[in-house]
Amino acid sequence: MATSQSAPGAKAHDLALGREETRDELLIHLWGVVDAHEADPANVEARSRSALERARRSRDVELRVLALRALAWVHRVRRETDVARALLDEAVRLARRHRLAEVEGAVRVSRAYVRQELGDLAGARRDLDRALREPASGVRAPDHARAVGRALLARSVLDHNAGRLVDAERGYRSVLDGPDLQVGTAVVAGNNLAMVLAERAAYADALRAVELAVRLAQDAGPAMLAPALQTRAWIKVRAGRLSSGMRDFERASGVYSEAGIPLGEYFTEYADAMTDLRLLPEAVAAAGRAEDEFERLGLPLLALEAGLRRARVLLLSGDFDGAARAGAGLRRAAQQQRRDRWRDRATLVEVEAALLGGTGDRDQANEVRRVASRLVRAGDLSAAVDAHVLAGRLAEARGDVEHALGSYAEGARLAVDGAVPVRVKGRIAAARAALLRSDAEGAVRQCDAGLRDLAVHRDSLPTVELRALASGHGAELGSIGLGVLHRSSTPGRVLAWMERTRALALAGTLPVLPASEVEAAPVTVDGQRVVASDWREITPGARTRATRWSLARLREDLDGRVLVELGGRDGRLLAVVVDGTRSRIIELGPEQDVADHLRALVFALRRMANPRGAAAAAAARASAEVRLAALSRALVSPLGVGADDELVVVPVGVLHGVPWSALHAGPVSLAPSASLWRRTAQWARDDRTGQVLVAGPDLVGAREEIDALRRTYPEAQVLGAQEATADAVVRALRAADIAHLACHGSLRADSPMFSSVSLADGRLTVQELHAAGAAPRRLVLASCHSGADVAFAGDEVLGFVSSLLSRGTAGVVASIAAVPDVEVVDLMLALHRRLAAGQTMARALHGARAEIDRETPAGFVNWCTFSAHGAA
């Protein structure tokens, strides 16, 4: 939420000793404490109450109104928003009754802020419209320019929180360009402008804006400085400057605490940053702490807002039951508090979570349509679009095509002027409506246009986490398009479409359809074409790189291999198979069946890696073999490939965790996308020389493994358990032709860029490795779970392997599960002998696996779980 008004600084206005302040002095003070944010709340409260008593004695209405406004400001700083609203209502009535136009205008601006925080956006806009019409030319009132600036700032905040980011940015810039700008106004406008710029990924400009806000806030007191530091922290995290951003968060927390300001807002912003990093448990915890803090302070509205944040993160993390329960509880709380807007938002979370979790009530479509109408009237654009699309889904599920089309049309119309995620939702609505009208090609055009809009936005984002999360907005567009094309189009076109949503956070490449099919598709609403002319302007400077697909060039790169690219639609899997002479689409089975077998297989392998007796190992082995056979029948047998064919497999979703080498008799290499595999084929020709062998600390057999490998690479650079610091390893990897890491690995499934390997001075995360650009030509990761990349919505995949391949590594060998430390040495020695002889990773691993004694539990696990990735 945009910062609507910062609290004041620590500068004190000392009472003149020995005499009572004159009326003029007191009025100047009362104007200044709110407009310039120059006093601390305790001092303002004492002087405001004194001024109120004086005004009542002397029947001085102007003094009374301004004292009420200042006292309301104190309660607002303390998050006692209802008390502030009551005081401002009284002040407006008095000012209007006594025709104090300039004072009434100032009070209305203050009330507009409070109304926004209470969810009354329409009332806030009415107050601002009235304030901008009032003159501001009294003797003691601020000059006209300052009054207009404050009103414009308030309106910009209103636009910001309603999702009208273009209008908000324009308004903030207008405020900052205005004459005679007060410090408090400049800090708020600069801080909020930075937030808008960050939303559209203009991070350099955002940081410049927030740096100015921080500098101005340094002398204005802790309650202005802390939010500015917090905003800077959030922007730095989004811009990929994680360490610096976390230091700013820590500093903001200290400033809040030193000033005695509640930490609820801090935890709220921290939750947003953790969500951006895909650290979802941390995000849920931070939002929960914010909720608890606000409840402890008796601030039910802010507790509602924090609770909704927590519910949305639960929804994002796939905890649909938890999100539905949280939404239901928040809806009841909002109803008791008579917070209509928050009740409606909580209803959307509750209903969407239930729908996604399979427990939704299709008869709720009418209720959600009513919610959508109320949100439109309240000016809450983003939530209104969500509501219309959700209402369309519910109506569609119950077979009510007429109402579904109406809801989708309204959602598409409202989304035209929104931010990128909102516009993508509008494209989803338009595509689903096209399908209901049996206009398959129209649905594909809407999906194409939405994916292009999203690609421009994603390409401008600075970190792979943000790009992967952005791709999630287009997951349904990709699925809809694939569902249409695989029934009616050629394998080549289906493959090109699948590549539209494959690991683009890493590859930064957008394959395109033929030129005749890529024109921008306008949204059609009630028979009229609505085109957003500024869709491409929302992300200036973004560069979307396109490559045109050619099956002939793909076959040339494959050089006799067979490509198998998998996709999913409506819970079922399909594959496009490309060999040297033909391409074809293969229908596979339900994805859930594969997921069930895979889950059981991983459990059995875990038991075999640490067996508790011969009987337990035998039972686990039997279970593993049953699951492998089932997976092979589901995923490989239908493909019609030869037993000795070398496969290049591009998985999707849960299939990234499948042990593909154990399902096919011939060599297998994996890749996040066919585009990225083709890049590795080019990088495989790199002429680097030199080897690096790394032994991590506290790993049984690591030193022995490295010593044994030195017989294969006598000139290798060796980093033992004491020398293998993060800096030393990164430097060594950059120049290596082949590197081997024998280290403990730690998988962070919810945020794979924070998966890590243990080194002499601590953990080296995937994010740090990626940021350093350390990419040897070939890398062997003899670490637990190092090959277990994690799939995200939108066919993104993040982890050690995909990160290395995107940075220039042409071949990787890694394991999807726990590795038996000592027994893995023989596999590694056999692998490296073949690599040193010039074989590719896939063929070397295939040969090395053939030498493993699979009769032992550890041997079977190593045979099953290691996979090759890339073309080298």
Describe this structure in words.
With 872 residues, the chain is an alpha/beta fold. Among the domains are: 133 residues, no CATH class; 62 residues, no CATH class; 185 residues, Rossmann fold, CATH 3.40.50. 59% of the residues lie in helices and 10% in strands. The strands form five sheets. An eleven-stranded mixed beta sheet has the order 7-6-5-8-9-20-19-16-12-10-11, sandwiched between helices. α24 packs antiparallel against α25. The chain is elongated. About 7% of the residues have low confidence.
Topology overview:
Blueprint lengths: L22 H13 L5 H18 L2 H17 L3 H17 L3 H17 L3 H13 L10 H18 L3 H12 L6 H17 L3 H15 L4 H17 L3 H17 L5 H13 L3 H17 L3 H17 L3 H18 L2 H17 L8 H14 L2 H17 L3 H15 L4 H17 L3 H20 L4 H9 L2 H14 L2 H9 L4 H4 L1 E4 L10 E3 L2 E3 L14 E4 L2 H8 L3 E8 L2 E7 L4 E8 H19 L4 H22 L11 E4 L17 E3 L3 H10 L7 E5 L6 H8 L7 E3 L6 H9 L3 E5 L2 E2 L9 E4 L2 E4 H7 L5 E4 L8 E3 L3 E3 L1 H8 L3 E5 L8 H13 L4 H10 L6 H9 E5 L2
Parallel strand pairs: 1-4, 5-8, 8-9, 9-20, 10-11, 10-12, 12-16, 16-19
Antiparallel strand pairs: 2-3, 5-6, 6-7, 13-14, 14-15, 17-18, 19-20
List its salient traits.
872 residues, alpha/beta, 11-stranded mixed sheet, 3-stranded antiparallel sheet, 37 helices
- Determine and state the CATH class of the domain at 686-870: Alpha Beta
Number of strands: 20
Quote the average pLDDT.
Answer: 83
H/I helix tally: 37
What percent of residues adopt helix (DSSP H or I)? Answer: 55-70%
The end-to-end span amounts to 48 Å
Q: pLDDT under 50 segments (min length 5)? A: 5-19, 135-142, 508-547
Broad shape: elongated
What's the arrangement of strands in the largest beta sheet? Answer: 7-6-5-8-9-20-19-16-12-10-11
CATH architecture of the domain at 686-870: 3-Layer(aba) Sandwich
In the CATH scheme, what's the topology name of the domain at 686-870? Rossmann fold
Structural class: alpha/beta
Query: In this structure, how is the largest beta sheet organized?
Result: 11 strands, mixed
